[in-house]
Automatic annotation (TrEMBL):
It comes from Callosobruchus maculatus (Southern cowpea weevil). This is 3-dehydrosphinganine reductase. Belongs to the short-chain dehydrogenases/reductases (SDR) family. The keyword Transmembrane helix applies. CDD domains: KDSR-like_SDR_c. Pathway: Sphingolipid metabolism; Lipid metabolism; sphingolipid metabolism. It is an enzyme of class 1 (oxidoreductase). GO terms for biological process: 3-keto-sphinganine metabolic process; sphingolipid biosynthetic process. It catalyses: sphinganine + NADP(+) = 3-oxosphinganine + NADPH + H(+). Pfam families: adh_short. Catalyzes the reduction of 3'-oxosphinganine (3-ketodihydrosphingosine/KDS) to sphinganine (dihydrosphingosine/DHS), the second step of de novo sphingolipid biosynthesis.
């Protein structure tokens, strides 16, 4: 089996190395980042500033926005670069649309829109309040739909643009404790794949980021709500720095890559769940086709491991109850 697929894998790797795709540039362009005042979004804003882009960050808390704006400014490479901030709730469509219009007037046409506004609350499904469910769906799903809906007409008119949505690894697989969050992130894949088809003829690209656990203020808050099972299942993956995730996201977005992921586990997961998602080259398809069957077996071992951890926790809980 390996002897049969090895030549295809080697050809695919060589083609990737020898025939690199032309990368877009954001130098002098306007990059807008929802959730740019913290975590992954702020790290991406800093990178964009380093690349010479004009950067607008949007979030709700004005103090955090001011602090982030001052920090991002330090990384500008050109005096002409404009760094702006807008206080807005991404769940308010009119405010999103109006603010994007206003920043375009001040800074110039938007070339890249990144949505990093999001949050996670963990827990078993029965323990969520209705308000928590609504908040999660609003910011993680509705906010993304709104930001995309607001930007697409502008990009279509100019026949260029880059859209980046931030999902998660749990956009590809369900996980104990993530029922509500994971539902929203799964939905982002549907959003990204559908919009990808709609905007491709207009020279607009869509990238769906699938960050692993990342060391951000948002992750710190999420950790406070994690059931023991969720902690045990996710701790093997380690913690990635937001700068690392942002670098990969920006690079993938500028290369027009659909899935942006980091690390070997994410590679396995993304390949396994590739489905009908957009591909960049025929060589990607060769790699995925060669690996899919084998990775299903690897995935099955992960599933067995996850279920055994959950069963162990269940037995512990039952034993405590019966004491
Ligand atoms: N960290 C991880 O481990 C991880 C892993 C996978 C995916 N992700 C995803 O990556 C994205 C960024 O996460 P992060 O960890 O960097 O989070 P973070 O540090 O908490 O930053 C979230 C940002 O979103 C803004 N925001 C939240 N709700 C908003 C709203 N309703 N309207 C406008 N802005 C809003 C926040 O500012 P305000 O609160 O001031 O509005 C902040 O700027 C999220 O979508 C998250 O689900 C994170």
């Amino acid at each position: 089996m390996l002897v049969f697929i090895l030549p295809f894998i080697i050809i695919a790797i060589l083609a990737k190395v020898l025939l690199p795709k032309k990368k877009a540039s954001i130098k002098g362009k306007h990059v807008v980042i929802f959730g740019g005042s913290s975590g992954i979004g702020k790290a991406l804003a800093i990178l964009a500033a380093k690349e010479g882009a004009h950067v607008t960050i949007l979030a709700r808390n004005i103090d955090k926005l001011i602090e982030a704006k001052n920090e991002i400014k330090n990384y500008c490479t050109d005096e002409e670069q404009i760094i702006t901030k807008v206080s807005v709730d991404v769940v308010n469509y009119e405010a999103v649309e109006n603010n994007l219009g206003e920043v375009e007037e001040i800074v110039g046409p938007i070339y890249m829109l990144v949505n990093c506004a999001g949050m996670a609350i963990c827990g078993e499904i029965e323990n969520f309040t209705q308000q928590e469910i609504k908040n999660l769906v609003d910011v993680n799903l509705i906010g993304s739909v709104y930001s995309v809906k607001a930007i697409v007409p502008k990009f279509k008119k100019r026949r260029e643009g880059i859209i980046v949505l931030t999902a998660s690894q749990v956009a590809l697989m369900g996980m104990y404790g993530y029922s509500v969050y994971s539902s929203c992130k799964f939905a982002l894949r549907g959003l990204a794949e559908s919009v990808y088809m709609e905007v491709k003829p207009y020279n607009i690209s869509v990238t769906l980021a699938l960050p692993p656990d990342t060391d951000t203020p948002g992750f710190e808050t999420e950790n406070k709500t994690k059931p023991k099972e969720t902690r045990l299942l996710s701790e093997t993956g380690g913690l990635v720095k937001p700068e690392e995730v942002a670098k990969k996201m920006l690079n993938d977005a500028l290369n027009g890559t659909f899935f942006s992921y980091i690390g070997f586990e994410s590679f396995i997961l993304t390949t396994l769940c590739v489905g009908m998602s957009p591909f960049q080259s025929v060589f990607d398809v060769i790699i995925q086709s060669c690996l899919l069957g084998m990775l299903r077996i690897v995935g099955a071992f992960y599933t067995i491991h996850f279920n055994s951890v959950i069963k162990k926790c269940f037995k512990e809980k039952e034993a405590k109850k019966n004491k």
